[in-house]
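Structure (tokenized):
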């Protein structure tokens, strides 16, 4: 699949990954057609679903990676998820392919699930667009076909139903996506913001636990961590580094209310303080933690 770089409309410029981003927003230019919206003459049920989704979320919805606009050489523009991938660039060279959702009833079902379980919780971090498909796959360097549930690009997110698996447990399915989105946004915050969280356990990240430490019941909780690791399988434990600690607490904030967290970890004041700090950071980034499922 050939992939073309799409240039957005200047007058449609939006903060792609939320108002709290530290990156420069893209500046659309050199186009006179918004390829992400249905054509005004399109009265199909699919166009209606897409337009209603935009009204409800502020994000464009695609069911096909071919846009309605044309490139400067007269070829159709493509969504091109691999352009300026979020996070690791290790997958950016893959030629992603999609299995489209073509039935309007299935498109509505998928769009409703996306809106209910993800976009409402993204809050101000809703991206410019979503490409919603039944499958995302690519061929890896060993020639094997691999599948992925989602891709996070700067111009939008590609979301797969994993051939319907999404509907088995949509809450958990989208929670995994949301976790990685929030982690990415946290990592893009200023050092001042991140250090406010790290300060609670800064003297213990990656530390080996002594025999005296191991004599303390739930010593990891005492130091503010949710887990400890027997890395080499020899009975010598160590505490997590910053990356794992961040993931653990973001996951806790996204999946547990404060009351639930306190009920489980309330005996460890440091853990509750870290939960409150991470909850504050996530809220300040613009995510909507109060959205109901």
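Design, position by position:
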């Amino acid at each position: 699949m050939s992939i073309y770089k799409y240039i957005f409309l200047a007058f449609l410029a939006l903060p792609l990954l939320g108002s709290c981003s530290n990156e420069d927003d893209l500046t659309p230019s050199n186009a006179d057609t918004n390829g992400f919206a249905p054509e005004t003459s399109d009265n199909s049920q699919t166009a209606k679903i897409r337009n209603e989704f935009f009204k409800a979320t502020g994000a464009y919805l695609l069911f096909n990676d071919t846009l309605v606009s044309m490139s400067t050489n007269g070829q159709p523009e493509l969504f091109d998820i691999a352009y300026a991938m979020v996070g690791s660039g290790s997958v950016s060279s893959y030629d992603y392919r999609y299995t489209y959702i073509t039935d309007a009833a299935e498109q509505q079902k998928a769009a409703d699930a996306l809106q209910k379980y993800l976009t409402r919780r993204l809050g101000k971090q809703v991206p410019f667009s979503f490409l919603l498909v039944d499958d995302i796959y690519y061929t890896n360097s060993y020639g094997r076909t691999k599948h992925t549930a989602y891709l996070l690009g700067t111009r939008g997110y590609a979301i797969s139903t994993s051939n319907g698996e999404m509907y088995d447990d949509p809450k958990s399915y989208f929670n995994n996506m949301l976790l990685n989105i929030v982690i990415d946004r946290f990592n893009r915050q200023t050092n001042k913001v991140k250090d406010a969280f790290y300060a609670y356990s800064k003297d213990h990240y990656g530390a080996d636990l002594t025999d005296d430490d191991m004599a303390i019941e739930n010593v990891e909780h005492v130091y503010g961590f949710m887990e400890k690791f027997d890395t080499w399988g020899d009975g010598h434990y160590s505490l997590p580094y910053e990356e794992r600690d961040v993931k653990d607490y973001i996951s806790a904030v996204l999946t547990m209310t404060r009351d639930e967290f306190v009920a489980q970890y309330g005996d460890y004041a440091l853990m509750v303080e870290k939960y409150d700090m991470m909850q504050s950071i996530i809220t300040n980034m613009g995510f909507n933690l109060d959205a109901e499922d």
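Reviewer-requested clarification: Residues 1-30, 86-91 have pLDDT under 50 and may be disordered. The chain is about 35% helix and 10% strand.
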